[in-house]
Design a protein that fits this description.
The chain is built from 8 helices and 16 strands. The protein has 349 residues and is of the alpha/beta class. It folds into 2 domains: 247 residues, D-amino Acid Aminotransferase, Chain A, domain 1; 54 residues, Dna Ligase, domain 1, CATH 3.30.1490. The strands form 3 sheets. It has a 6-stranded parallel beta sheet. The protein has a 6-stranded antiparallel beta sheet with strand order 14-13-10-11-12-15. Helix 2 crosses helix 3 and helix 4 packs across helix 5.
């Protein structure tokens, strides 16, 4: 997806790093998950700043065709045996400087293997495995953050817990692990939970009826939050924002920065919040990777992909990168090739 027709991707006054400075040349960056909006956004944001390679499990992934044929690579699934070894060999072969994973299943394996990649000269844009586990387990997320920000009342789903749930009904039941809306049940009463596993693999959570916001957060390698950019999700399609507003809401920015710090995240993450019945924002979940709607943040003056790469390469990231408010709609854009172009990739990792 692309941004607005005016597409103010690099507004006047917005700071941009010199990505050629640390290495004396443009860095070589491999972005995985090129078929998803996160990968596409990262590739578009870095075009002209870096030498780019794109990888995905699908030969028809749209982001593969944002780079030349010899820079398109098919990758194994992140949860497949040999994923780390295959990707490490590919990075060594391509002499990659920075690896940017954008797929949830890739994050923990790559975090655990980050020292091996570093030994091969590859910096990986990923938080450490313990921080990722705190995000990917929604119970651990709530327990970690409840002393820092407002967290909806949350319990583990087991026998008898629904009858004594203090937040009452309607409520939300969701898997402890998983992304998107998969497995989520809106429960009007305890009887709606009958078919769900009562083995603590699900959460029962207070329903937050208010407006939902997403906040993109940039955390420097030293752990300092450099930017937190909130947006309202006015319209979504399959969980991805297609119309929305970037907001000047310092309270939301502070909330998201506090969450990222409490979790010990690095690089780029996305904090999702929703207002409760009193209009107070409460934490929903955290995506510990570049988000699919990050093009709005770039348009609002915070070039998170470029600054995240610069930080990994040792450049100093500004203490605070300001953003400006805007509204945007997003749309599909065609990549037109010759009759044999689709599926034409350099090879398989």
């Amino acid at each position: 997806m692309n941004g607005t027709a005016t597409d103010p991707a690099r507004p006047a006054g917005a700071p941009l790093p010199d990505l050629s400075g640390p290495l004396g040349r443009p860095p070589r960056v491999l972005v995985t998950g090129a078929g998803g909006p996160s990968g596409v956004c990262f590739l578009r944001a870095l075009a002209g700043f870096c030498d780019l390679w794109a990888g995905d499990i699908d030969p028809n992934a749209a982001g593969l065709y944002l780079v030349d044929r010899d820079r398109r690579w098919l990758l194994p699934r992140g949860d497949a045996d040999g994923f780390v070894e295959s990707l490490l060999r590919l990075c060594e072969r391509l002499r990659v400087d920075v690896l940017v994973p954008t797929v949830d299943t890739e994050l923990v394996p790559l975090a655990r293997a980050a020292p091996r990649f570093a030994g091969a000269g590859v910096r990986t844009l990923v938080s450490d495995a313990a921080a990722l586990e705190r995000c990917l387990d929604k119970w651990a997320l709530a327990e970690t953050c409840r002393e820092t920000v407002r967290v909806p009342r949350t319990v583990l789903l087991e026998e008898g817990v629904a009858d004594r749930f203090g937040a009452g009904f309607p409520a939300v039941a969701k898997p402890r692990r998983g992304s998107g809306s998969r497995g989520i049940v809106m429960a009007a009463a305890p009887a709606a939970l009958t078919g769900l596993p009562h083995d603590r693999s699900y959460l029962l959570q207070e329903l937050l009826p208010g407006t939902e916001y997403s906040v993109d957060v940039l955390v420097a390698p030293d752990g300092g939050v450099r930017a937190a950019v909130p947006r309202a999700r006015d319209k979504t399609d399959s969980g991805i924002i297609v119309a929305g507003h970037v907001l000047d809401r310092p309270g939301l920015s502070r909330l998201a920065a506090g969450v990222a710090s409490a979790l010990g995240l690095r690089g780029i993450c996305n904090v999702q919040v929703r207002e409760d019945r009193e209009g107070l924002p409460a934490l929903l979940e955290v995506n510990p990777r570049p988000p699919g709607g990050m093009s709005l943040t770039v348009a609002a003056g915070v070039q998170m992909p470029a600054w995240a790469v610069a930080g990994l390469l040792g450049a100093e990231v500004p203490g605070r990168i300001a953003h400006h408010a805007l509204s945007a709609v997003r749309h599909w854009e065609d990549v037109v090739m010759g009759p044999d172009g689709l599926g034409d990739v350099a090879g398989r990792a």
